C-alpha cells in the first residue's frame, strides 16, 4: 500500500509558493577541535544516522490527476553529496556574513524532485569555527515518524566516524508507476469515498479548512472569538512577502533571565516574551511609529501541551503530545518593562490550563537536541492561521544545558530559522542551550531590511528589564 502523505503534510506542499517556502531550519556554529572536523567527516556522520531517518531518502510523488494525496517513495537516485553541500565565507568570516548567507539559502525553495532537505557545511568562520545550516520541509517533520536531522547528529560526547563505518544497508525500492498510483487511489476511494471530494479541493480551501479546525482548539473558544472580532493592528510586520530574506541572530545569557525570574517570580518563557516586546517597542519607535499606551503587537505562539489522555510528556518521538497555537497580545505601548512582563505573564497563564502545559524540564527528556524538532512542530501548528489574525510568529523551545557534539566538534551556538507565512514579514525562533538563550529573526528583505536593528534591541531590552525593580 502507498505511503501517502497525511492531509496536513500535503497542505504544506499545496500552500507553498516561490516567495513563501515551507521549510524550517537552523544555524549551528561549532568549535573545530585540533584534530579537525571537515566536510567528509560530516558526510560520514550523516550517512550513518540516515538509517534511522528513512524519510530523508524519500521524495514526494504526485498522483496523476490529483486523484489522491501524493505519496512518499524511495529516491532511487539518492545522492548524499547533493543534500550535504559545502560552502565558505571569506576568512575570517563574521556573524554578519554568515547570517547574510543564511538569508540567501533560506529564500530558495527545496527541489521537489528530491528528498526535501539540505544541509550546508560552512567553513571560513573566525577562530577556525564551522557552521551547519539546515533546511527541512514542514511536510517531513511530524515529530513521530520523522524528526529534525539535528536531533540525530548531535551527541552528548565527542564521536568520530569515517566513511563506511557501521552504515545501515539500504536498497531503494522502485517507485510505483502511473498505473499503480491510479489503482491505489481508486482502491482508497472505494474504501473511503469521502476522501475523493477532499482530494479535489484547491490548496486555498485545504488551508482554510485546516485553519477552521485548528481555531476551535486555540486557547478556548472565547479567546478565538475575541481575536476574530478584534483583528490585530496593522503595521510594518504585516506586509506582502517578497522572495528575499534577511536573518539575524542574537545570543543572550540564560542567567540574566533566571535573575529576573528570581526577582519577579515569573517563568523564563514570560521573560523572553517581555524582552521581545521591549525590543519591538524600541524598533517601532525607531521607524517613527507613534505608540499609544494601549498599542499591541499580536503574536502567534505555539506551545507544547499534553494530550488529555497522557500522563506526562513523552520522550519517545513526542508521541501523544501536541503543539497548540495561542494568540498573545504583546503590550508594546506600555512604557514600563515590569508592567509589560506582568501583562504577558497574565496573558500566558490565561491561554493554557496549567495541568496541560508542558514544563521546560519535561521537554528536555526528549532524546537528542529536541528543540530542532519542536521548532518544526511549532511552525506546523502555526501554518493554518490566516495572517489577518496575528502580526508575528514566535516559537520558543528550551534546549539542553550540557555541551553537545557533532562528531568531535562542540556545538557553541544555535539559532532557529522559522519560515514566513504570506503577509508576515517577521518570524522569531527562540531556543536555549548550554547557558545561553538564542533568538533567530527571519524577515522579509523588502519589509524588514533593518532586522539587524531589531536584533540589537533585544539585548537592550533585556538590560532594561534586568535593571528595573518592582
TrEMBL record:
GO terms for biological process, alphabetical: biological process involved in interaction with host; glycerol metabolic process; response to hypoxia; response to nitric oxide; triglyceride biosynthetic process
UniProt-recorded Gene Ontology molecular function terms: diacylglycerol O-acyltransferase activity
Keyword Lipid metabolism assigned: yes
EC number per UniProt: 2.3.1.20
Pathway: Glycerolipid metabolism; triacylglycerol biosynthesis; Lipid metabolism
Domain O-acyltransferase WSD1-like N-terminal per the UniProt entry, residue ranges: 5-271
Domain O-acyltransferase WSD1 C-terminal intervals: 321-466
Main enzyme class: transferase
This protein's GO CC annotations: plasma membrane
Keywords: Acyltransferase, Glycerol metabolism, Lipid biosynthesis, Lipid metabolism, Transferase
Catalytic activity, as annotated: an acyl-CoA + a 1,2-diacyl-sn-glycerol = a triacyl-sn-glycerol + CoA
Family to which the UniProt record says this protein belongs: Belongs to the long-chain O-acyltransferase family.
Record-linked NCBIfam families: acyl_WS_DGAT
Protein name: Diacylglycerol O-acyltransferase
Lineage: Bacteria, Bacillati, Actinomycetota, Actinomycetes, Pseudonocardiales
Amino acid at each position: 500500500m502507498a505511503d501517502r502523505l497525511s492531509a496536513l503534510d500535503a497542505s504544506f506542499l499545496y500552500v507553498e509558493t516561490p516567495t513563501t517556502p515551507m521549510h524550517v531550519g537552523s544555524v549551528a556554529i561549532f568549535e573545530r577541535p585540533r584534530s579537525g572536523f571537515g566536510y567528509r567527516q560530516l558526510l560520514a556522520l550523516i550517512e550513518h544516522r540516515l538509517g534511522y531517518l528513512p524519510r530523508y531518502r524519500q521524495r514526494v510523488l504526485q498522483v496523476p490527476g490529483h486523484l489522491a494525496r501524493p505519496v512518499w517513495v524511495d529516491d532511487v537516485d539518492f545522492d548524499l553529496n547533493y543534500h550535504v553541500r559545502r560552502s565558505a565565507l571569506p576568512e575570517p568570516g563574521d556573524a554578519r556574513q554568515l547570517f547574510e548567507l543564511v538569508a540567501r539559502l533560506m529564500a530558495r525553495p527545496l527541489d521537489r524532485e528530491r528528498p526535501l532537505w539540505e544541509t550546508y557545511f560552512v567553513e571560513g568562520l573566525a577562530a577556525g569555527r564551522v557552521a551547519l545550516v539546515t533546511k527541512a520541509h514542514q511536510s517531513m517533520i511530524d515529530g513521530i515518524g520523522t524528526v529534525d536531522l539535528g536531533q540525530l547528529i548531535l551527541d552528548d560526547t565527542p564521536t568520530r566516524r569515517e566513511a563506511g563505518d557501521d552504515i545501515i544497508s539500504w536498497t531503494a525500492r522502485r517507485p510505483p508507476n502511473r498505473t499503480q498510483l491510479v489503482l491505489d487511489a481508486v482502491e482508497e476511494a472505494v474504501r473511503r469515498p469521502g476522501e475523493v471530494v477532499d482530494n479535489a479541493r484547491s490548496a486555498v480551501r485545504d488551508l482554510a479548512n485546516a485553519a477552521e479546525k485548528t481555531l476551535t482548539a486555540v486557547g478556548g473558544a472565547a479567546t478565538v472569538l475575541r481575536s476574530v472580532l478584534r483583528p490585530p493592528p496593522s503595521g510594518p510586520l504585516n506586509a506582502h512577502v517578497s522572495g528575499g530574506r534577511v536573518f539575524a541572530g542574537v545570543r543572550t545569557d540564560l542567567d540574566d533571565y533566571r535573575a529576573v525570574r528570581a526577582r519577579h517570580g515569573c517563568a523564563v518563557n514570560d521573560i523572553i516574551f517581555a524582552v521581545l516586546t521591549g525590543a519591538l517597542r524600541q524598533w517601532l519607535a525607531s521607524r517613527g511609529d507613534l505608540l499609544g499606551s494601549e498599542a499591541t503587537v499580536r503574536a502567534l505562539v505555539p506551545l507544547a501541551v499534553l494530550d488529555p489522555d497522557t500522563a506526562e510528556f513523552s520522550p519517545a518521538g513526542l508521541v501523544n503530545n501536541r503543539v497548540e497555537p495561542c494568540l498573545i497580545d504583546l503590550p508594546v505601548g506600555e512604557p514600563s518593562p515590569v508592567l509589560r512582563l506582568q501583562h504577558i505573564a497574565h496573558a500566558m497563564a490565561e491561554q493554557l490550563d496549567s495541568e496541560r502545559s508542558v514544563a521546560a524540564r519535561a521537554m528536555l527528556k526528549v532524546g537528542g537536541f529536541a528543540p530542532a524538532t519542536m521548532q518544526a512542530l511549532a511552525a506546523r501548528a502555526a501554518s493554518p492561521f490566516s495572517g489577518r489574525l496575528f502580526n508575528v510568529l514566535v516559537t520558543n523551545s528550551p534546549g539542553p544545558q550540557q555541551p553537545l557534539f557533532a562528531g568531535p566538534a562542540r556545538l557553541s551556538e544555535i539559532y532557529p530559522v522559522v519560515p514566513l507565512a504570506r503577509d508576515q514579514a517577521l518570524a522569531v525562533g527562540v531556543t536555549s542551550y548550554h547557558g545561553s538563550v538564542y533568538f533567530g529573526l527571519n524577515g522579509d528583505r523588502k519589509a524588514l531590511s533593518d532586522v539587524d536593528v531589531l536584533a540589537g534591541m533585544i539585548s537592550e531590552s533585556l538590560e532594561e528589564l534586568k535593571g528595573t525593580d518592582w
